[in-house]
């Protein structure tokens, strides 16, 4: 495939692996990049030493481009921003803030900058700052989310900017990829779909919870703090919602969330924050990163070659391309 995203990022397929905090490490990122997509190492809350080790780990797997995600509200964001240049990663994605303070240094180092946005206004602002592309992530996504759905957000962002747009949120297969392209995207980002692949180091209990998820099994917590997060329903999430409904103070709520992701990563999927998107209901297989990318692109291209009449007939039979 050739799109502005593949050309910009130097990748074979316009598929980006989402930066899942405490999960997306060098092993997963390296596997995704080696398979022709773009692997991203999530650096939120990570030490400089860990970041160096994971970049080296990814480089040992592939000589293809890799990326780093900088969570801009992280107290160490400035230090991580410097590491982006020092370690020679090809792409940086950003979230939870503005990358304005780091843009000049990244540009000088030849790094491609791709902020994650949740509105058309923010996308336009990122373009003015010099972003090379944006990820328009809908509220269906797992982890920290905005309010707009992918169906509404992607075309709005595409109308607001001239730089390439990567669609994200609710995409796990070729059907979702084709839909994103129909809305104006030139690439897709997937997080939840990569949770169950063999190269993902997340605890087996987390993988099993994703594989067993139904369409109604996600829940949003944290709205009371201004930082909504989507994850799978469990004891922790239900307790959070009870506290939020009881109008507990922000301090009490923050105390409830503290350490919740770490608990889930360690395997406590009832008392931790098991972040995953609504599309978890469509994730029914494990496989490897290369399988996910290959199958997604194959299905999208097979569907794209059909007329609407043919698609309707295929859908009526509940068949997949």
Automatic annotation (TrEMBL):
One of its GO terms (molecular function) is nitronate monooxygenase activity. Transmembrane segments: none annotated. Keywords: Flavoprotein, FMN, Oxidoreductase. InterPro entries: Aldolase_TIM, NMO. This is Enoyl-[acyl-carrier-protein] reductase FabK. It holds the Pfam family NMO. PANTHER family: 2-NITROPROPANE DIOXYGENASE, 2-NITROPROPANE DIOXYGENASE-LIKE PROTEIN. SUPFAM superfamilies: Inosine monophosphate dehydrogenase (IMPDH).
């Amino acid at each position: 495939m050739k799109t502005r995203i593949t050309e910009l990022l130097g990748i074979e397929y316009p598929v980006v692996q989402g930066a899942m905090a405490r999960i997306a490490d060098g092993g997963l990122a390296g596997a995704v990049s080696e398979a022709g997509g773009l692997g991203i190492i999530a650096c939120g809350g990570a030490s400089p030493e860990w970041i160096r080790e994971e970049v080296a780990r990814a480089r040992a797997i592939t000589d293809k481009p890799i990326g780093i995600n900088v969570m801009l509200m992280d107290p160490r964001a400035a230090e991580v921003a410097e590491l982006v240049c020092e370690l020679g990663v090809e792409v940086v994605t950003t979230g939870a803030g503005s990358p304005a303070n780091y843009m000049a240094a990244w540009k000088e180092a030849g790094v491609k900058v791709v902020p994650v946005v949740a509105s058309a206004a923010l996308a336009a602002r990122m373009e003015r700052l010099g972003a090379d592309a944006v990820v328009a992530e809908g509220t269906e996504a797992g982890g920290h989310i905005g309010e707009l759905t992918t169906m509404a957000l992607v075309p709005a962002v595409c109308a607001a900017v001239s730089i390439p747009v990567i669609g994200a949120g609710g995409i796990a297969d070729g059907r979702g990829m084709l839909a994103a392209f129909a809305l104006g995207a030139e690439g897709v980002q997937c997080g939840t779909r990569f949770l169950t692949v063999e190269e993902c180091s997340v605890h087996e209990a987390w993988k099993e919870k994703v594989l067993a998820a139904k369409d109604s099994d996600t829940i949003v917590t944290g709205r009371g703090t201004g930082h909504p997060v989507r994850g799978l329903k469990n004891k922790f999430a239900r307790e959070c919602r009870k506290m939020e409904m009881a109008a507990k103070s922000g301090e009490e709520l923050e105390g409830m969330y503290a350490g919740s992701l770490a608990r889930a990563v360690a395997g406590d999927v009832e008392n931790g924050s098991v972040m995953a998107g609504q599309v978890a209901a469509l994730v029914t297989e494990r496989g490897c990163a290369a399988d996910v990318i290959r199958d997604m692109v194959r299905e999208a291209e097979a569907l794209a070659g059909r007329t609407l009449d043919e698609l309707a007939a295929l859908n009526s039979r509940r068949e997949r391309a």
